[in-house]
Amino acid sequence: MSEYVAPLADMRFTLNHVADLERISKLNGYQHADPATVSTVLDEAGRFFTEVISPLNRVGDLEGSVLGPDGQVRTPTGFKEAYELYVEAGWAAAHMPADWGGGGLPYVVGVVIEEMFKSANLAFSLCALLTHGAVEAVRTHGSDELKSRYLEKLVTGEWSGTMNLTEPEAGSDLGAVRTKAVPQPDGSYRLFGTKIFITWGDQDLTDNVIHLVLARTPDSPRGTKGISMFLVPKYLPDEQGNPGPRNDYKIVSIEHKLGIHASPTCVISFGDSGEGAVGYLVGDEMEGMRNMFTMMNPARIGVGMEGLALSERAYQRALAYARQRVQGRPPGGHQPVPIVEHPDVRRMLLTMRANTEAMRCLLYYTAQQGDLMLHGGTAAERESAADHIALLTPIVKAWSTDLGVEMTSLGIQVHGGMGYVEETGAAQHFRDIRIAPIYEGTNGIQAMDLVLRKLPLADGAVVARLLTTMSSVLDELADYDDLEATRDSLADAIDGLAGTSAWLGARLAEGDLDPVLAAATPYLRQFGIVVGGWLMAVSAVAAKKGPADFDADFLSEKVNTARFYNEHLLPQSLGLIPTIEGGADLLNAARF
């Protein structure tokens, strides 16, 4: 069974020549994150996640986390020790705010480290994903008292965080949340209710678990407008800030899932003894949904990263197997050869590689926009980046996770029958990633967000600006004869996306939502494929310029992979146009 190895060369290339780390390192506060320094950091991160975290991936899948008779969740063998090393080395806080004990690295560098963690051990990495979201929520909306008591320990990873949204009768429709929060004379609240599907809702890795919970105060209006956010610690801190009495909630059960077995997905009952779980308001009452999106939007990018991460892991495993599995003879050959020599296997492997690199470009570029949104030198630069990241977030989440499912499935196919056998490890990647298109807002919800909220931004000007930006690479491609077909394919794809965007915009202007909603998912896929083609073209041009920090073979392979994406995979985007513009009549006529 092959082990994960961080693809440091491709990570550095994408970080430096697509996401332009040099530009980010010149922003105020990031001067310490120059490419040379970051390269050293990534070397050490690659070693850590390869040697310490990755070997626990199979252990976590086999053992899973379990709920003991004492109501305490126990994580798999080795997880607690590895988590302590993770915190001690500073990886938990690498891109967290320096003011609260973090490393202060740019978000785009944090995303590279996050990719390593997720590829090495997706189930384990989810604990950090939720904790980082809790940091953003408390930092942005919490009172000074909450920040001083909780923020540094969340930033460093000494304590973990969770997000409590879903209830038995309130899945994606959070307006149906029924958990109640009763105000107390001392300014705190007492919470009563049940939450389900709480990722890393309990564990034995940290001394405390900090839940951010959506609940309703008395007499709050129905629907999402009546929801507030509360911080509910597992243990109530004493005056010195150390964990004190156990709060009034219990872990009812852990879900038995298709994958990510090491990640304890909990059912939590608040106020189980009748006293109510002590909670503290985060932000103002009835602003919980808005505040929760401070957690959810970065989490959606993090979930998109899971599609990339497991595609990379599945590709590495499939490639290693294809190199050593001897079977079949090539045309005209007399001796069996490794299956990597067969054209169809090569097609599958190159499809996996090209899609993985396209996702990496998109994730790193989006993270770069996040850094520019916060630290850009002008208001216009910050506003433009905010628009870009808003537009790209649903695409990052949905397109990348859909591809993650497809690429891990293709990895099984490369293995043949052995891929369906658990001992090879290929099946685990498929099982683990299958949840990603579902949580943090299903991919159908992401598609609706794209067409109903993001496409109309600034009356369509945000999409128009991105299309213009994408078209700008066409002139650069024209400088290279061997990229002529790539240029032609990309130009056609951009025109196709412009056409469907205009078609949907016209339907929206008419208030005709049926065809818009029917088109949402194929439109998001088209958008993702075309953005991937643009960024792979950017990658090809950068490789053609021959940066001195990469050898000729690596750069040649980058160009070949980008050409394969644009000339073989990108044309699929044009095939989606009839579906997008086909309307909703056939859907509505169907009987179910």
What is the C-alpha radius of gyration, as a whole number of Å?
Answer: 24 Å
CATH class of the largest domain: Mainly Alpha
For the terminal residues, how far apart are their CA atoms?
Answer: 45 Å
Overall outline: globular
Description:
There is one protein chain. By secondary structure, this protein is of the alpha+beta class. The chain folds into three domains: 8-155, Butyryl-Coa Dehydrogenase, subunit A, domain 1 (Orthogonal Bundle); 161-291, Butyryl-CoA Dehydrogenase, subunit A, domain 2; 456-592. The chain has helices at residues 8-17, 21-24, 35-53, 56-63, 79-88, 107-120, 122-141, 144-156, 288-324, 343-375, 379-415, 426-433, 443-454, 461-471, 473-477, 484-510, 513-544, 552-569, 572-575, 577-580, 585-589; strands at residues 66-67, 73-74, 160-164, 180-183, 189-199, 209-216, 227-233, 235-237, 243-246, 249-254, 265-270, 277-281. Strands 3, 4, 5, 6, 7, 10, 11 and 12 form an eight-stranded mixed beta sheet that branches. A two-stranded antiparallel sheet has the order 1-2. It has a two-stranded antiparallel ribbon with strand order 8-9. A hairpin with a 5-residue loop joins strand 4 and strand 5. The protein starts with 7 loop residues before the first helix and ends with a helix. The model has no long low-confidence stretch (mean pLDDT 95).
Summary of the model, kept short:
With 592 residues, the protein is an alpha+beta fold. It contains 21 helices and twelve strands. The protein has three domains: 8-155, Butyryl-Coa Dehydrogenase, subunit A, domain 1, CATH 1.10.540.10; 161-291, Butyryl-CoA Dehydrogenase, subunit A, domain 2 (Beta Barrel), CATH 2.40.110.20; 456-592.
